[in-house]
Amino acid sequence: MGMDDMLTSKVFLRKTKRGKVLKVVREHYLRDDLWCGSDLCKKCGQENSDVLDQSPVSSSTLCAFPHYVVIDTNVVLHQIDVLESPAWKNVILLQTVLDETRKRSTNNYKKLKEIMATRKDNFYVFVNEHHKDTYVERKPGESANDRNDRAIRKACSWYQTHLEESQKGIEKKKRIKVVLLTQDLKNREQASIEGIPSHKVDEYVKSLKDFPDLQEKLAASHSDSNNENREPLYPEHLAPTRIMTGVKSGKLLQGIFHSSRDNFLEGTVSVEGQDKSILLQGHASLNRAVDGDVVAVELLPEDKWTSPSDIVLEDQEDQDPGDEIEKEEKLLNNSTKSKDRIPTGKIVGIIRRKWRQYCGILLPSVLAEGTRHLFVPAERKIPKIRIETRQAESLSSQKIIVAIDSWPRTSRYPLGHFVRALGNIGDKNTENEVLLLEHDVPHHSFPETVLACLPSMPWVISQEEVKRRQDLRHLDICSVDPPGCTDIDDALHFRELSPNLYEIGVHIADVSHFVRPDTALDKESANRGTTVYLVDRRIDMVPELLSSNLCSLRPDQDRLAFSVIWEVTANAEIRKTRFTKSVIRSRRAFTYAEAQCSIDDSLQQNELAKSLRGLNQLAKIMKKNRMDKGALQLSSPEIRFEVSTETNDPIDVISKPMLDTNSMVEEFMLLANISVADHIFKHFPECAVLRRHPVPPASNFEPFLKAGKTQGFTLDVSSNKSLAASLDGAVKPDNVYMNTMLRILATRCMMQAVYFSSGTVAQVDFYHYGLAAPIYTHFTSPIRRYADLLVHRLLAVAIGADVTYTELLNRKCVQQVCNNLNYRHKMSQYAQRSSVALHTHLFFRNRVQDEDAYVLYVRQNAVQVLIPKYGLEGSIYLKGNDGDSKLCFVYNPDEPSLTCGNVTIRTFDRVVVQVSLDSKYVQHQKIAVHLVNPKIEGLCVEAIETPKTMEPSPKKLKGVK
Amino acid sequence: MAEILLSEAEKAFIHHGVQDDLRCDGRTRLDYRPIILETGLVSNASGSARLRLANSDILVGVKVELASPSPDKPQEGRLEFFVDCSANATPEFEGRGGEDLANEICRFLQRSYASGDTINLAELSILSGQQCWVLYVDILILECGGNLYDATFMAVKSALYATQIPSIKVATMDGDQPELELSDDPYDTKRLNTENLPCVVTLMKIGNHYLVDPTPEEECCSSSGIVVAVSGNKKITAVRKIGSGSLHPDSLVSMLKTGSDVGAKVNKTLMIKLLEEKNLEKSQKVGFMR
């Protein structure tokens, strides 16, 4: 073989970013020693290949002869989930296909690589691009795609003739053939001309009689659905190049799309650098965007701007509407006054899809035997998804995962395919799995590499370690926590140094001693970011050995701690602050109630009781000082479930009590956090990990002010101090819960508190609005928050107790970690809320109860109420029971109020509602709320019992920490 | 140019040969030496050609690039010539030794191509006033074997003939910025109309006669001559006198006449040969590995 034949060159033109045209020439060497990989082959050099069998067996009825399979790129691109199945054997993957996949979809390429790695024995990679007999050069006038198709066909026919030579003696029927699977009609036609057997992948998969379920995983192929000829429902998206230039020139805006929770026809786009987001209304404006997508928006002319709708709208048809779009006019109110108008736009293109896999359930279909079904995601912001499945019957009682494939213009809903089933609906494990998946909570068990970083048991503190630290084991230290707490990360002590001078210590578990930077353990916990507490489960940030044992400040055991020790006068003035790594021995782990008892019971005169009293005394003074500075006391309803020990199902709901000791512990933790924040910022002005709570923009307070007005209060929100004062003043004797409601509303006006690296934000913005503190951080819970761990490391370096490392001092790295922490934090809160909601569901499974409720918002077609006892929110739709709206409500948007006959409903009104589980559809249970009192004919349901007369007590008041 | 030392007797011999229309190598006065030509041998260039005229060896590469047109000719692209005399050709080219000759040839190329009869520069326009193609023609003289002008012009014409200009589309206009879209098919290219590109004929006067395609020895014997650039449609686009001697007006006219005739013939032959090469089955490049 001459050297000339083995060298070719690939030529292509490329336009550089600066607008130059480059002619790129790559040398391309061919080989004649690439093996075919078949066990049967005697020509190639391989010995005993175990990838391509000598006599391949397949259950395909379509190809009922021994065969190898060659797959086309479009199969990998569109049907990657199908390829994961063990049904695939004797598959030849061509390099052409790999290259094309990598170019078109990195995601699918990664998945394909994984499949190839796990199923080495079934996939053979043939480097056809470098084989002298299968390499093809692009012909003039041929598109790149056509060339690749030709290369694939060439490889097929090469295999065919190559294998023929080795099986001359075998009778014709038993000879191995090579079957090409492709979705491309043209390629199939061409293949049949060239004598290569080829099939559509879906036909082939359907013919695999040993794997009847596999066809469910087939992605909806849009090429042959009859959608093509129908009228498009949505406007078209602009081409990427046009979007790019549009965004560059400022004609289009780029932002992240958020769909509204309350109204599926509404959404907003937050554009970076603009504080007001852009409103979008109606199907055409939303134009197939899914929550989280990066989109390009065009602003409408100012006279077409509107305001967010007052209507609560769920895409609620319990039946499949087909591909019709309902009339929107009646769904969106357009009668808006000009002053409420905000920038409104429409989506003209999608820059980046943020599609993931979604958990949810199947909507019961009218035609159960049909194959086209609608999938309802658990997340309300995600539209329903059309999937094709034959297992609707069995899937209807399960939670399933579905992936979106595409959203053509002609389809009302995005098209997707079934990925896997999680388990039965209503089953608690399934539902827990769903909510963890939905909130992106990493909950796999810790891998070996992480566990290898743990100290070996039994573990004792070495003498050298004690020498390095201050020995505080002689102090009477105790911890105060909620009952059942096993991850105790803080403990306190108090002693009198001289009359009028006290020493207080806050001792925090020294997790940074165990979690060293740059270990697998560190990376894992940094990724997890926080421990997630579900109602019945805790997902740890660090392995249990640390969280519940070695780091937990258990009583009567020597533990490593990081201590903050103050000298304080009787007026709670701080004289001296110092930080030290220490060894402590807690005397006792109190619960809040026990600690409260010790304080209240004057008979107890032991050291611990005295300490607690002293601490409590100081805490009260400190709290008062803080409130005077303008710290807020906000409220969000918090409840706890009494869980049956046997079934683990909730049997009762109790609200969390708020004791003096709760706020005592909180007070010292705040003090420690602030002291530490000060110290690390002084030492690391560029890279200190701090926490700030931005001042909410005035516009956030609008609904709050409106609500206050209906009750006749003028609320001052100009500063946190005035807000706190207004809240304290807004009390009505006849409606005790009103004040709590106001606080709940005020909470919703707040911004999210966030972690940040001090080098990235101006110092004036460090302010913590809720606590009225100029600087703040998290130091006191390193077992359950990664941010605290970082703060520990910084503080340790600042006091010379530890060494630093590069990432810790790089403000960009720190900020990146902070971003992840903020995300995890937010998601964990959502997950916790969902967990409570889930248990509320379970609680109401066999119950119907009448409860007191308070009106949170009045909308044009619904009243949203809060049921304090369960911390539950629900909407009462003003539709009437029988469905026809004979009821005439008069909506007054100014107040806002709804009037029907002689009944008027306003914000904060107390009503009685009946709570039950709407089990019209077993699959899609939700909590239903019906009005009982005030009586409105046609809307109300009969009370099942005499409404309780007791006033609900205000629930736990909780500061924003 | 490289000087060759000749004795008086040798010069007289050449003189007599020319007089009798039988030159040292057996040619008549209007004969060319054998020419070897290959195009497209530099794969990185958009167009290339290598021409060997006896011992004169020229390599030409054409590179196309996007640029904005000059303000006075918004509808036209540009040609830029650059000649490099390799020190390989003769030791005298070492350092900046070849610069004068290079500039001389370069200027003459520019002058000959400046005429509207040779090339339609509007072909190179993409978007009037915004974008156009610029063809950078790089000429490398590898060996001097006499008659550099003729060899260079033929090589340039061949390289331009072989040049493939990628097809480019103006996808969108937004404000002032055109968004250009390059075709992803490397075969989707266009060729220039090179029919009329000029060829050059060097006529050397020896005694009372003049001859074409002088060898270096013949160049030594001549004191004057002219270089005539003739376009494909037989128009003279540029003329230049070389050598220190003088020319009689009568012989000048006659030389121009002959020049344009020979030029047209060279042009025609070259075009036929180029087309022949283009229509050949795709084969291995010969390049310098001969």
Automatic annotation (TrEMBL), chain A:
<keyword id="KW-0269">Exonuclease</keyword>
<dbReference type="GO" id="GO:0000176">
    <property type="term" value="C:nuclear exosome (RNase complex)"/>
</dbReference>
<keyword id="KW-0460">Magnesium</keyword>
<dbReference type="Pfam" id="PF13638">
    <property type="entry name" value="PIN_4"/>
</dbReference>
<dbReference type="InterPro" id="IPR001900">
    <property type="entry name" value="RNase_II/R"/>
</dbReference>
<protein>
    <recommendedName>
        <fullName>Exosome complex exonuclease RRP44</fullName>
    </recommendedName>
</protein>
<feature type="domain" description="RNB">
    <location>
        <begin position="469"/>
        <end position="801"/>
    </location>
</feature>
<dbReference type="Pfam" id="PF17849">
    <property type="entry name" value="OB_Dis3"/>
</dbReference>
<dbReference type="InterPro" id="IPR033771">
    <property type="entry name" value="Rrp44_CSD1"/>
</dbReference>
<dbReference type="Pfam" id="PF17216">
    <property type="entry name" value="Rrp44_CSD1"/>
</dbReference>
<dbReference type="GO" id="GO:0006364">
    <property type="term" value="P:rRNA processing"/>
</dbReference>
<dbReference type="GO" id="GO:0005654">
    <property type="term" value="C:nucleoplasm"/>
</dbReference>
<keyword id="KW-0271">Exosome</keyword>
<keyword id="KW-0539">Nucleus</keyword>
<dbReference type="GO" id="GO:0003723">
    <property type="term" value="F:RNA binding"/>
</dbReference>
<keyword id="KW-0963">Cytoplasm</keyword>
<keyword id="KW-0464">Manganese</keyword>
<keyword id="KW-0597">Phosphoprotein</keyword>
<keyword id="KW-0698">rRNA processing</keyword>
<comment type="subunit">
    <text>Component of the RNA exosome complex; within the complex interacts with EXOSC4, EXOSC7 and EXOSC9 of the exosome core complex (Exo-9). The catalytically inactive RNA exosome core complex (Exo-9) associates with the catalytic subunit EXOSC10/RRP6. Exo-9 may associate with DIS3 to form the nucleolar exosome complex, or DIS3L to form the cytoplasmic exosome complex. Exo-9 is formed by a hexameric base ring consisting of the heterodimers EXOSC4-EXOSC9, EXOSC5-EXOSC8 and EXOSC6-EXOSC7, and a cap ring consisting of EXOSC1, EXOSC2 and EXOSC3; DIS3 associates with the base ring of Exo-9.</text>
</comment>
<keyword id="KW-0540">Nuclease</keyword>
<dbReference type="InterPro" id="IPR029060">
    <property type="entry name" value="PIN-like_dom_sf"/>
</dbReference>
Automatic annotation (TrEMBL), chain B:
<dbReference type="InterPro" id="IPR015847">
    <property type="entry name" value="ExoRNase_PH_dom2"/>
</dbReference>
<dbReference type="GO" id="GO:0071035">
    <property type="term" value="P:nuclear polyadenylation-dependent rRNA catabolic process"/>
</dbReference>
<protein>
    <recommendedName>
        <fullName>Ribosomal RNA-processing protein 42</fullName>
    </recommendedName>
</protein>
<dbReference type="InterPro" id="IPR050590">
    <property type="entry name" value="Exosome_comp_Rrp42_subfam"/>
</dbReference>
<dbReference type="GO" id="GO:0071028">
    <property type="term" value="P:nuclear mRNA surveillance"/>
</dbReference>
<dbReference type="Pfam" id="PF03725">
    <property type="entry name" value="RNase_PH_C"/>
</dbReference>
<dbReference type="GO" id="GO:0016075">
    <property type="term" value="P:rRNA catabolic process"/>
</dbReference>
<dbReference type="GO" id="GO:0005730">
    <property type="term" value="C:nucleolus"/>
</dbReference>
<dbReference type="GO" id="GO:0034475">
    <property type="term" value="P:U4 snRNA 3'-end processing"/>
</dbReference>
<feature type="domain" description="Exoribonuclease phosphorolytic">
    <location>
        <begin position="197"/>
        <end position="260"/>
    </location>
</feature>
<feature type="domain" description="Exoribonuclease phosphorolytic">
    <location>
        <begin position="32"/>
        <end position="166"/>
    </location>
</feature>
<dbReference type="InterPro" id="IPR001247">
    <property type="entry name" value="ExoRNase_PH_dom1"/>
</dbReference>
<dbReference type="GO" id="GO:0000177">
    <property type="term" value="C:cytoplasmic exosome (RNase complex)"/>
</dbReference>
<dbReference type="GO" id="GO:0071038">
    <property type="term" value="P:TRAMP-dependent tRNA surveillance pathway"/>
</dbReference>
<dbReference type="GO" id="GO:0034473">
    <property type="term" value="P:U1 snRNA 3'-end processing"/>
</dbReference>
<dbReference type="InterPro" id="IPR036345">
    <property type="entry name" value="ExoRNase_PH_dom2_sf"/>
</dbReference>
<keyword id="KW-0271">Exosome</keyword>
<comment type="similarity">
    <text>Belongs to the RNase PH family.</text>
</comment>
<dbReference type="GO" id="GO:0035925">
    <property type="term" value="F:mRNA 3'-UTR AU-rich region binding"/>
</dbReference>
<dbReference type="Pfam" id="PF01138">
    <property type="entry name" value="RNase_PH"/>
</dbReference>
<dbReference type="InterPro" id="IPR027408">
    <property type="entry name" value="PNPase/RNase_PH_dom_sf"/>
</dbReference>
<keyword id="KW-0963">Cytoplasm</keyword>
